[in-house]
Every structure is written in C-alpha cells, then in structure tokens.
Amino acid sequence: MEQKHHYSNVRSWHPSAHNRDSYTGRIVVTLKWVGDDNLDLAAFILNETGKIASYSDFVYYNSKYKIEGKFPSNLEGTVFLAEEHALYMEEHTDYNCEAICIDFDRIDADKVSAIKLVSCNYDEERAFKHLDSVEVCICDDGLKEVWGEFIVNNLNKSKGNALDIGSFVYDRSKGSWIYKPKMVIQKGWWNEFLNIYT
Q: Closest Cα to residue 128, out of 35, 2, 12, 30?
C-alpha cells in the first residue's frame, strides 16, 4: 500500500520569482538531503504506451551509455546523471546531492511522452529510515536560478523504500514539458519501477 506524504513549494535556496508551469531547453533536477545515506536518482524515459522502449531508457548509476565516457545516460544523451552539478552543490551547500540533466530541446516528443524521476537508497534495507526530509529542485543548467522547489517530510516514518518524485509530461498544445510532482513513498525499490515501466 502506498504511503503519501505532503509536498509543498519552498523558498530556501536562491528562489526565483515564481515556480514555472512548463519547461523547455536544458534543465537540472537535483535531489538534496542531509545525512550519511547514499541515495540514487534515476529516470525512466517513457514512450506513448507509458513504457521504456529499451533498457537504455532507464537512466541510472550503472547505465551502459555515458556522456563524455563518464556520465550515465540514455542512448541519445538527452537525459544523464549530472554528477558535476551534484558535486558543485555539495561543495557550496550543506547538502548531499544527486542530479539529473534533461535536454528537452533534443528529445523527440513524437517518441517520448514523459520522463519519470525516482529515488531509492543504495542500501535497500536502510531505505529512508534515517532521513527526515529530502528536497527536489528544478534549476537552469548553470545552477543560477531555481525554477521549482519541493520538499518531502517525515521520510523516516514511512514504510516504503522508493520515492516517486513525479514526471515531466509533454504538452503538445504548449510545445513544452509540464512537471507533475507526485512525491509518493512506495515499496518495491527499483524492482517495482522496472516491473511497471518495462
């Protein structure tokens, strides 16, 4: 059974004037937390049937394809783990970070309907038991402006071990991508998401 937690906009880190309704261009989504947990951030690039077309559309730390030979990505290189962005934020804030870069201008919207973002603890059994909260930020590629921020509280009270962060869904009428936050804790770790999207 899914256990839902409250999410809300926060204004705590270089806030922009307002959260954006839609996105184009190249963005970075960061996951931030305090503590010793080793969280992973991953993306499922979904086709019109709501599935990944191939295993390369599951972008995670052990992906086969890599940008510049070092950043795990999908085959096209349009979605990749932005490890340099995460490292920069760790050096300039008090958070641990994981980050994913999405280049919307290079994504074929005729083939991709949504990009689902999820997070799990590398330690499946530890899960979120020792975490009070995590924050999700949507930033420009240069990390100079925050376009959206969300926080998930009371993680350590949850019984699940996977965080469904939400999806970027293509809106054909606007020609842009809409972020639909979900912020739901569920059981199943990576296996459950793979069962759903493959």
A: 35
- Considering 13-17, 22-26, 115-119, the range whose residues carry the highest mean pLDDT is 115-119
What DSSP state is assigned to residue 1?
A: -
Please provide residue 88's backbone torsions phi and psi, each rounded to the nearest 5 degrees: -60, -45
Is this model's pTM higher than 0.90 or not?
Answer: no
Task: Identify the CA nearest to 20 among candidates 104, 146, 167.
Answer: 146
- Closest-CA residue to 106 (of 132, 138, 134, 73): 73
Residue 195's φ and ψ, nearest 5 degrees, are: -65, -35
CA distance 150 to 54: 30
Rounded to whole angstroms, how far apart are CA atoms 21 and 147? 9
DSSP state of 85: H
